[in-house]
Amino acid sequence: MIAGFESPDEGQIYLGGEPINDLTPNKRDTAMVFQSYALLPHYNIFDNVAYGLKIRKLPAEEIREKVTRILGMVGLEGMEDRMTNQLSGGQQQRVALARALVIEPSVLLFDEPLSNLDAKLRVEMRTEVRRIQQEAGITAVYVTHDQSEAMAIADRIIVMKRGVIDQVGDPHAVYYRPVDEFVADFIGESNFLRGKLAEKDGDAGIVAVEGHNVEVDGVRGHSVGDDVTLVLRPEAATLADEGVLHCKVKLSRFMGSYQNYQVMVGDTLVKIQDFNPKTHKIYEVGDEAFVSFTRGDVHAL
Amino acid sequence: MARGQSARLDQKKLLADPILVTTIIVLIVFLTLFILYPLAILLVDAVVGESGPTLSVLQRVLAMPSFETAISNTLVLGLFVGIVATLIGLLFAYVEVYVNLKSRFMSGLFKLVSMLPVVSPPFVLSLSVILLFGKAGLITRTLLGIYDNNVYGFWGIALVQTLTFFPVCYMMFRGLLRNIDPSLEEAARDMGASRWKVFTSVTLPLILPGMGNAFLVSFMESIADFANPMIIGGSYDTLATSIYLQITGAYDKQGASAMSCVLLGITLIMFIVQKYVLERKSTATLTGKAARGRMLITDNSVRIPLSVLCGAVAIFVVALYICVPFGALFKTWGYDYSLTPKWFIQVFTLHHGFEAFADSFGLSLIAAPLTALLSMVIAYLVVKRRFAGRGFIEFVSMLAMAVPGTVLGVGFIRGFSSGVFHTGFMQGLYGTAAILVIVFIVRSLPTGTRSGISALRQIDKSIEESAYDMGANSFQVFMTVTLPLIKDSFLSGLVTAFVRSITAISAVILLVTPQTLMITVQINEYAEKGAYGIACAFATILIIITYARQERGGVTHGQGEEGCASRAHLQDLPGSQDQEGFLRRSRCQLGDCAWRVCDAAGALRLRKDHHPAHDRWLREPG
């Protein structure tokens, strides 16, 4: 919709303060990096990147200079004469990025640009994209389904649910203070502990979960007796001989960087990732233990 | 209301693109004016008399015994050709896809058979069948000593049309059979079915819609065919030739319009059934590609009879085509088989060969790029853009496929000879070379558009979007991105349009004027007159031109002959007088010849409103 290929059902889109609803895609000062890269297969790398500049009828000398500079920025210097099918996926991605950057748009649009790359390359490219975008200093809107990609790249994350904005915030806020279960579940893994607010003192309070009292912050909006859902991140809790919630171990699996547990707290299944497990006590299936965390590790919805 | 804004914005954006809007409007005007309007005027002609709406014209036409015969002739012929061409096509495709032929010769022969009808004018086979089996035929007279064999009539047309149209069926079936996953048939074999049982219980049901499709396509080709019935039909009149006669012989333009409506009605029904029922079914049963190679049949008891059968048919077809250049090289076919270049020389010295080739070549050269570009633009709009009128553009450009050339020709005569809606507007167009170019374009448009659509469907939408996003407008996107990407399809469209144009006859013959000489019309003329040497010489040169073009890019149809009678041999046939009793349709009594136009006294004379297309052959020395 920002690029102009789709039209909004309602509302107005502004770019740099100007309404752009009526403008055709070619009249909008946007540049998009497509999911499929959409490189022009009949042009070489140079001509692909130069396309937007040629449309803008810049002098050939200036085009050459700009394209060379931008190709340097994305690390493709010397490949100007290659055809697009002679490039790897990551390189094609860089060409698509260079092509969008070179016209110096007001906003750079990314449509799941890394989803066609393999997992390792994806991780590598997302830091690249971030570096290049920062270097170019252009506002970017980046669409992704991969929450870790969003965390790695964004200054501000907008979580959308069925086309409606659910939460806007920096990565910290979205991760640690999700506004609802959807956001908590979508960004990272979460345990949801359901209980009733038993005591309340300003923002602090005590929530009764499966017969245990859990001390929490952030209950200002609730009153005593309310149903409260607590979000507990799996890496925020550990298993210990004493702690907050008594539990029984259902699954215990060594994953390398962490020990993966699933435990039952009453009728609630809780996932726990205990990092660097060789320094910790390992609980086996059937053991009884306690889920241990501090009041700052849980977030009340 | 929310939806409303989205739609409104889409429309606004469309209107903000003046190039796109102009293109769409121009296209709609073009299609309406040159496809819909001529057809509509036929309908109006058929049902509106001088004093308002009337069915009298239709009634009069339908009451003509000759017209009744023409309808039943056409349908019987179409049915026969449709069935036989489908079966032969299926046999060829099955043998090619399923049987291990083990020989280069056979596969080369198959390739030749599939290509020949494409590069030759559509009526060449009529010439060669007459040369081989006519009264002076090489086989009938020289070899078998039969002096009175009559190839003219049903069996002549049926033979020629079947041989001309079965390669189309063959290529359709080849595509279908190759798309059948061999494991389906292997599964049936595995469960104990015999090869015949597999064919009837698996293969056949899978290609059944395709068979219907092939039948309808060859049926339509047969009933729309003008040149073959004209040359080899003798007294066996079909709808297409009757319409031509009605307009050129009887000067009954209203009657011709009514007849055209009948023919158009038949082809339209076929077309709709084919396009909207069978084509869908066909793609529904056969999707995707064969997963792996097929075990070919090597069993000699199957292989040898099938190869011999197909080989014999194929060799016969190829031999027919080879006849044509020889027809031009022998002194007098049937009597004196010494080689001579005289026919080729005469083409250029006596028969305006240079002018004919220059005109045909030139006009086709103008029409081809226009057609190719136009069809790519239509394909682009249909596949890539959403706008009001898109469905109209797609439907009308495909509709042209269902319109027989003769019908289109009559539509153009009625629609433009006295200007649009008889107002005199654009009357200047009629009788010029420009109208021929337009006919060429309209006739080749559907094929080009179809190939463009399938090429464009394979291009990811985001490639063009990326160019828009970079700031290019519709025109720039089309020229810099779309067109280069479908270059191959564009080029083959170019060649196809050229070949189709240069070999076109049915609509053209009604619209040419003495200022323009068309090769196909010349061939038809000489073939009718029995001047087979000249006709063959023309046809040979035409085949060489189309073949050369074909080799450099792409696809189509065509054909030629020599012969007979002089004016003295023309005799009136009773009951063939037109309304004014002035001109008659007569039949040549000598030799292998069709009919002429002459006056009541048997002398050729021109009438004031005589169609200019026939000036030349009336002037022709006997």
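The mean pLDDT of chain A is 87.
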